[in-house]
Amino acid sequence: MVAFTPNLQDVTLLSDAIKYITDELTNAFKCNQLQSVLKKYHYPVIEKTVEPYFDASLPNGKILVLGSSSCSVRHLEATFKALGLADRLEYCLDYNTLKKYEFERLRNNHHYRLIIVGPMPHSTQGTDNYSSVITRMESSDEFPKVVRAMNNGELKITKSNVKAILTKEKSSGFIAA
Fold first, then answer.
1. pTM value?
2. Lower CB count within 10 Å: N or C terminus of the chain?
3. Contact by Cβ (8 Å): 105, 79
């Protein structure tokens, strides 16, 4: 049997590759993209068998809208009412209030079924080691389902995208009217 003796260039390349891939996996984990990066490397991804807690919550639970909004509270209320969800709406749309919002109270709270998020301060409480509180909530099965309100590739709460989100979640049966 011939002994393998790597050269210095190969050892350096291996070390650099390990660091690069480790950094990529760490960033993917923080951004809730770990499974897609693992698939890129043909790593066998095991699907979770544990259901997120919100799967057990009631389809008629509260729907929380969080973030600075481009539409008025009156428009949000009218949208919810038109879809038969008027009594389910809760919101916090004030940018400064969001800085001190206690996101932790949403953890394992079965009264909430869905959180629609828009633009909010990066300096909010409860981010832990995540880049934002939105990413933290999306990455944890302990929070209600989070849907980003997007418009032209940006977080933005509008009457039309809130209506589209609610319509989609109703038609899928995730929320009940």
1. 0.67
2. N
3. no
Q: Is the pLDDT score of 128 beyond 70?
A: no
Token readout for 117 is 């998020």
**pLDDT, tens digit (0-9, with 9 covering 90-100), for 3-17:** 777 788 888 988 898
Contacts (Cβ under 8 Å, ≥6 apart) of 25: 34, 37, 38
The CA distance from 154 to 30, in Å, is 20
Helix (H, G, I), strand (E, B) or coil at 89: strand
Q: List, in sequence order, the alpha helices (H) in the chain.
A: 8-30, 34-40, 73-82, 95-99, 133-139, 159-171
Cα separation of 144 and 34, whole Å?
20
